Amino acid sequence: MKVLGIETSCDETSVAVIEENSVLSNIISSQEVHAQFGGVVPELASRAHIRLMMPIVKRALQETGATITDMQGLAVTYGPGLVGALLVGLNFAKGVSQATGKPFIGVNHMEGHIYGNLLSQKTVNFPIIFLIVSGGHTMLVKMDDHLKYKLLGRTRDDAVGEAFDKGAKLLGLGYPGGPAIDRLAAEGDPDFFNFPRAHLKNDPFGFSYSGLKTALLVYLKDKTEAYIQSNLNHICAAYQQAAVEILVKKTILAARKFNIRQIAIAGGVAANSRLRKWLSEEAGQKNMKVYLPEPKYCTDNAAMIARAGYEYLKRGMESPNTLNTYPALELQSIAD
Q1: Domains (ranges, CATH) in the chain?
Q2: d(Cα 282, Cα 261) in Å, to the nearest integer?
Q3: Which residues of 238-251 are buried (b: 16+ CB within 10 A; e: fewer)?
Q4: What's phi and psi for 27, nearest 5 deg?
Q5: Residue 26 forms beta bridges with which residues?
Q6: One-letter-per-residue 3-state SS of 32-72
Q7: pTM of this prediction?
Q8: Residue ranges in 186-301 assigned as alpha helix (H)
Q9: How far apart are CA 309 and CA 302, in angstroms?
Q10: Burial of 261 by CB count in 10 Å (0-12 exposed, 13-18 middle, 19+ buried)?
Q11: Which residues contact 316 (CB under 8 A, 6 or more apart)?
Q12: Partners of residue 16 on adjacent β-strands
């Protein structure tokens, strides 16, 4: 079964073709226009998606030597994300479906990130505790089987990726900030300063990152530019250490509580080197298996959407032509 995947939830226009677990093509066009604004501008993102969609679809198909008629179905992100951006991809998928008679399935973007990890694995054993970490989401999910999820906890305010981006902006590192902090932190001392870790009462698997961002703001308030620049590596290391420690501890806690031996990470922040190393070390000490995604499948891409869609399409499931976008879509499990 060949599936054409389409991802336009934010500022990446991506189209992919997969055949079961094999990625035949995965084209991603990032929109550099947003860098000057320090974040994604929704209207500019939508316009770029419209302009890029057809050329990227053609390129994705050309790389495989296939045509639209060779696809057994389409998979497209319909939420969560920016409503205007989502509409571009969803309406394109609907149009192709109507014109060719091929079924299409709407995929939850968070579900796509999960399958972005599974794309990297030769074998997978369930159940798995999934830590999903990105610019817009931080959540722990118990995955009992394909398409079967239970939400254990999520952030109450800022996501960890957002905390990295906002922290980087305070430090003058530009956007996106996560990779910059990760790179600088590699040469810094994580114990340089003790930034706060949020532990939520009566919510063992919940997260909160607004306090960490505020703590950095307060810390920098009376520091000179010379001081900040001379200690930038150390500040980044200490800030990253605080952000990652909570992620690691709560993921391991969830795995132990539910007696699960497999843990995994997904989403843009899953590419963070400190998170990958620390989680692998902690899991190894407790005889747990860690599924790490390839970095190319951590950020938004259509291969992950196509892989998730494949699971639905092979079960004969498809979306109606009346499907709408849902900017705040919740992760849902299929019925037994």
Answers
A1: 2-114+297-313 (3.30.420.40), 125-292 (3.30.420.40)
A2: 12
A3: bbbbbbbbbbbbbb
A4: -95, 130
A5: 16
A6: HHHHHHCCCCHHHHHHHHHHHHHHHHHHHHHHHCCCHHHCC
A7: 0.94
A8: 210-221, 225-230, 232-257, 273-285
A9: 10
A10: middle
A11: none
A12: 5, 26
Length of the chain: 336
Residue 192 one-letter amino acid: F
Q: Give the angle 56-57-59 at the CA atoms, nearest 5°.
A: 60
Q: Which phi and psi angles does 79 have, rounded to 5°?
A: 155, 165
CA angle 182, 186, 188 (to 5 degrees): 110
Full pLDDT tens readout for the chain, 336 residues: 999 999 999 888 999 999 988 999 999 986 555 455 556 677 787 888 999 999 999 999 999 999 999 999 999 999 999 999 999 999 999 999 999 999 999 999 999 999 999 999 999 999 999 999 988 899 999 999 999 999 999 999 999 999 999 999 999 998 778 999 999 999 999 999 999 999 898 999 999 999 999 999 999 999 999 999 999 999 999 999 999 999 999 999 999 999 999 999 999 999 999 999 999 999 999 999 999 999 999 999 999 999 999 999 999 999 999 999 999 999 999 875
Measure Cα distances from 268 to 130, 145, 223 in Å.
Answer: 14, 23, 31
